[in-house]
Amino acid sequence: MMLFARSSSTMPNPPEVTAIVVSFNAPDELRRCLRSLLATTGLRLRVIVVDNASTTSNQQLVTSQFPRVELIANATNRGFAAAVNQGLIRSVGDVVLVNPDVGVEPSTLATMHTRLQAHQRVGIVGPRLYYPDGTPQASVKRFPRWIDLALVLSKLPNFFPRLARRYQALDIDYTQEQTVDQVMGACFMIRHQTLTEVGTFDEGFFIWFEEVDYCWRARQRGWSTLYTPAAKASHVRGASFAPQPSQFKQRLLRQSIRFYCRKHFGWLAELGLAPALLISAISGSLIDRFSLRKPPATQDF
After folding, report:
1. 237 with 185: CB under 8 angstroms?
2. What pLDDT is recorded for position 299?
3. How many C-beta neighbours within 10 Å does residue 217 have?
């Protein structure tokens, strides 16, 4: 089992929480994210940025404008899970994963941390997420069954939302704090003891579904996941990948869903996804063909 963190007993005023931000391009969003993190009140916070070989000015931005922030600069894009694990090695205390297109309020992380400490077997906490215009954002799902993965790939819930009602947790009351299956990884606080017991993120996921897998693994170890509307954060959603072709994003999504399916349901279940995988490949190609010369749109999966 990997040991996270150096011992805080040897550090004066050790951080209570380490924030890990995995960045890939989108420097304006990263700047706003780091400014919001450094304005945090109510707890001692350490901030680590793991940059996945951005072709923009992300690394220079961190070193020149945010001297308090630690930078891990990757020569290649190692994917989200692998980059998180790099940050975990340097983490001290509890950990919060924050996407670079997320902005937190000064009290957000302290509120999440308070909830973590108040419930002995809560291992993961997620806040209420909003789009930048203030519109509430869905951030809770149930664990997917095989049929849910097939539906996601087929895109049928885009036309018939009730098909995904259970998986998308469309019946949840977002005004109530509650234990849930999974919370979105955009802002995702993990107890140090949970990290020690569950381990690192599975690097078989390049991007997407790695937090679903982690919530499931935590559940298997007896840890629950808590959603709390008392903590709030804004989330642009998909800023780093918005300029990428739909076909490229769909390929990454297919890879993650196939890996999740094989890991949790077996290789026969993965083979059963073949028709939905074909539909996903065709739809990605068609979207790219008909969206040429149009501004890129943010995609939610």
Report:
1. no
2. 40
3. 17
Q: What is the pTM of this model?
A: 0.90
Structure tokens at 217: 């693994």
d(CA 49, CA 63) in angstroms, rounded, equals: 10
Domain residues of the chain, as ranges?
Answer: 10-138+174-235, 145-163+244-291
What is the spatial distance between Cα 256 and Cα 208, in angstroms, rounded to a whole number?
Answer: 6
Q: How far is Cα 258 from Cα 125, in angstroms, rounded to an integer?
A: 27
The closest of 114, 98, 42 to 233, measured between CA atoms, is: 98
Percent of the chain with pLDDT over 90: 78
C-alpha pair distances (Å), 137 with each of 78, 79, 229, 235, 236 = 28, 25, 12, 8, 10
Structure tokens at 54: 């951005």
The listed range with the strongest mean pLDDT (79-88, 149-158, 282-291) is: 79-88
Distance of CA 240 to the CA centre of its chain: 13
d(CA 71, CA 60): 10
Q: Note whether 150 and 279 are within 8 A (CB).
A: no
Residue (of 69, 52, 75) closest to 18 by Cα position: 69
Domain range 10-138+174-235, its CATH number among 3.90.1150.100, 3.40.50.300, 3.90.550.10, 3.40.390.10: 3.90.550.10
Write out pLDDT tens, residues 10-45. 566 777 999 999 999 999 999 999 999 999 999 999
User: Within 10 A of 175 (CB to CB), how many other CB atoms are there?
Assistant: 8
Q: Estimate the crossing angle of helix 210-220 against helix 80-90, to 10 degrees.
A: 60
